[in-house]
Design a protein that fits this description.
Two copies of one chain form a homodimer.
Chain A (H helix, E strand, L loop, with lengths): L1 H9 L8 H8 L3 H13 L4 E3 L5 E3 L9 H9 L2 H4 L17 H17 L6 H6 L7
Antiparallel strand pairs in A: 1-2
Helix pairs in contact in A: 1-2, 2-3
Chain A binds a DNA duplex (30 and 30 nucleotides) through α3.
DNA sequence: TTATTAAAGGATATTTTTGTCTTTTATTTG
DNA sequence: CAAATAAAAGACAAAAATATCCTTTAATAA
């Protein structure tokens, strides 16, 4: 998510940071980050260009996608739909003890992740008001 | 948490289920459950007695403790205080991009886990309205 | 068109989490 | 006290998550 924020905040002026640059700026192991960006690239969250002057970027419309898309791409929709205690049987019609209470929390998280967009923090990030370090 | 619910629902009549019985009823590997119960026992969430007719139980006042205590005992208070993106620098005065939005979600989760008590589901569990299977 | 740059992909390694096995200690009952 | 029961504890094993390395592919520029 930090990598996506970093790329997003650099996509306004058409620049394309490479893995090395991103990794340095978000304190992430380079090769590990590469794996994640590959997945995000396949999922269409970020775009990439190889070769000199290549790197990662996000299309203008991509900046309006919700954060939830990042999570879905990387980890599936388990956190949006799954049981709070990880129970397979749990559902609306056959709820686990925590089901109803947990649903409220999960709904709020879901709502937050669908309302917040990838590009939402660009201004503050570029102004230096927010940072992405570990 | 399911183990605690199971023990709680059997502590009303003074019975003391053993690890084997608990494991069977919550579909948990016996020895793995043993480790968890050891930790919960050290933390004072559950009590235990060795030997014949021994097993685990929860004191009457223990039934009024919040679910949050279980989590704190097993995993610390990271989920109550930590940053949503796992950033070490993030705080109220030096927030990460998601800090303010995530705080709302975390606060609701925290509230839920502190309002809900360990013994809260005893009635429904004993009536069979709720189950603890995986 | 060749050298260089940078992402993609596959194989491997490390670490953490989860799960298992065995021995020890405590308690109860005959 | 001796035998049986059951949790506590420690050592060990398997699986999953995280991280690294190396080779391949694509793009650019001289």
């Amino acid at each position: 998510m930090r990598a996506v924020f970093y790329i997003a905040s650099h996509s306004l002026d058409g620049s394309r940071p490479g893995i090395k640059e991103i990794a340095e700026n978000i304190n992430s192991p380079e090769h590990f980050l590469a794996k994640i960006l590959q997945k995000l690239s396949k999922g269409g969250i970020v775009s990439s260009i190889k070769g000199p002057n290549g790197g990662f970027f996000i299309e203008p419309q991509g900046l309006n996608r919700p954060l939830a898309d990042i999570i879905t791409c990387l980890e599936g929709d388990q956190i949006f739909t799954g049981c709070g205690m990880g129970l397979s049987y749990c559902s609306e019609s056959n709820p686990c003890p925590l089901h109803h209470e947990f649903k409220k929390v999960r709904n709020q998280l879901t709502h937050m992740l669908y309302q917040t967009t990838i590009g939402e923090f660009n201004g503050e990030l570029r102004a230096g008001a927010l940072t992405l370090n570990k």
